[in-house]
Amino acid sequence: MIPPEFQPAKRAEWPGGAACAVMLCFDVDGETVALSEGATYGSHRSFLSMCRYGPEVGAPRLLDLFAHYRLPATFFVPAHVAGGHPGLVRRIVAEGHELGLHGDRHEKLTALSRPREEAVLDRSLEVLERVAGVRPSGHRAPWFATNPWTPEVLVSRGLDYSASEMGDDVPYLHDNGLVEIPGQWAMEDWEQFAFHPEPAIGFQPAGHDKVLRMWWDEYLAAKRVGGCYVLTMHPFLMGRPAKVRLLEDLLRRILEDGGAWIARGREIADWARRGTGTPTGESV
Ligand SMILES: [Zn+2]
Q1: Contact (Cβ atoms closer than 8 angstroms) between residue 219 and residue 20
Q2: Mean pLDDT, residues 78-91 taken together
Q3: What's the gap in Å between 127 CA and the centre of ligand 1?
Q4: d(Cα 217, Cα 284) in Å, to the nearest integer?
Q5: To the nearest whole percent, how much of the chain has pLDDT over 70?
Q6: Cα(249) to centroid(ligand 1), Å
Q7: Angle (nearest 5°) at CA 209 between 182 and 54
Q8: CA of 272 to the centre of ligand 1 (A)
Q9: Domain locations along the chain
């Protein structure tokens, strides 16, 4: 006889009895994607324009979508992009979204010394605070790449959380008290939709049906274990008209399901720090 269906252990509890948390993130990389891949302003004009589509066209359309559904999101913005698109950054904050750190020119931290990493973080904080009028409390490392000292550096600047690791289904605490809100590559639009031939980025772009099915399955699975569903997107990809439609289909399903607590990173970090979702060991 086949036993009843397997029920994985619940990993956390969420506000209002929600079955899972949902964090909708945008990494507004803009031109820094091309610059960090070796492009220059004097060359690769098409590549740069493809990336600039993010802050100039994609992000405003995504903000319209989120305003329509009155949903909160978290925008991680490199300082170089914030300085070049101050109106966008101010709109993100004015519409109630969270502004987070994402390097200056999208530097891969693993290629930096600790002093250089600290200088990039200080510059990022200074630029975002000056442009937006608010001090960010969360950090997403470009490329999800961090150094052993990164949590210490973030706490030394008063930051509350990191969203760069992949070590659990729910937020957890670093030794120094920094909250980690983990993501995963399968929950990224980059792996599904990014493509540029030279310099080469991305893969064979995926079909919408596959991606909607995969991200919806991830949502149902997050509900099953009481997980934290972290969807990471890039406006130069997800801000294209057909991708906005795909995202809207996913958001409508989640809203119709009604089982999620949809929150900004800092709210999830606050909840995790209070330990309200700590039924097991180290995870909070
Ligand atoms: Zn990025």
Answers
A1: yes
A2: 98
A3: 17
A4: 24
A5: 97
A6: 24
A7: 60
A8: 24
A9: 15-273
Ligand 1 centre to CA of 26 (Å) is 9
Report the percent of the chain where pLDDT is more than 90.
Answer: 87
Q: Is 282 exposed, middle or buried (0-12, 13-18, 19+ CB in 10 A)?
A: exposed
Q: How many CA atoms lie within 13 A of 201 on its CB side?
A: 22
Domain 15-273 superfamily per CATH: Glycoside hydrolase/deacetylase (3.20.20.370)
- pLDDT per position as a tens digit, 220-278: 999 999 999 999 999 999 999 999 999 999 999 999 999 999 999 999 999 999 875 44
What is the CA(142)–ligand 1 centre distance, in A? 5
Q: What is the mean pLDDT of residues 91-106?
A: 97
Residue among 67, 24, 36 at smallest CA distance from 234: 24
- How many angstroms does the Cα of residue 28 sit away from the middle of ligand 1? 7
Residue 283's pLDDT is: 37
Going by their DSSP bridges, the two strands 201-202 and 195-196 should be labelled as antiparallel
What distance in angstroms lies between residue 6's CA and the mean position of ligand 1's atoms? 37
- Once rounded to an integer, what is the mean pLDDT over residues 173-178? 96
Strand 20-27 to strand 138-139: parallel, antiparallel, or no bridges (unpaired)? unpaired
Ligand 1: centre distance to CA 8 (Å): 33
pLDDT of 276 reads 53
Got the DSSP string for 49-64?
HHHHHIIIIIHHHHHH
Cα of 129 from ligand 1 centre, angstroms: 19
102 C-alpha vs ligand 1 centroid, how far in Å? 7
Residue 9 CA to ligand 1 centre (angstroms): 33
Ligand 1 centroid to residue 70 C-alpha, Å = 25
Per-chain residues with Cβ under 5 A from ion ligand 1: 27, 29, 142
